[in-house]
Write a structure and sequence with these properties.
By secondary structure, this protein is mostly helical. It has one domain: YjbJ (Protein Yjbj, Chain: A). Helices cover about 75% and strands about 0% of the residues. The chain is built from five helices and no strands. α3 runs antiparallel to α4. It starts with a helix and ends with a helix.
């Protein structure tokens, strides 16, 4: 799945993000609003990852997720 598909169905995507990234709050998801860079920033913040680690984790997850 690519990011545009993911972003296009944001309400469903929010649920999938919460399943994978349980530390993300509803406020975090409101701030992200389908923006990849904001997701990376929040994942980095909540999970203490470097940018590269967050990019790998999000990309790997995105390859596996279906909406």
């Amino acid at each position: 799945m690519n990011w545009q598909q993911f972003k296009g169905d944001w309400n469903v995507a929010r649920g999938r993000l919460r399943e994978q990234w349980g530390r993300l709050t509803d406020d975090d998801l409101d701030q992200i609003e389908g923006r990849r860079e904001h997701l990376l920033g929040r994942v980095r913040q909540r999970y203490g990852m470097t940018r590269e680690e967050a990019e790998r984790a999000v990309d790997s997850w995105l390859d596996r997720v279906t909406i």
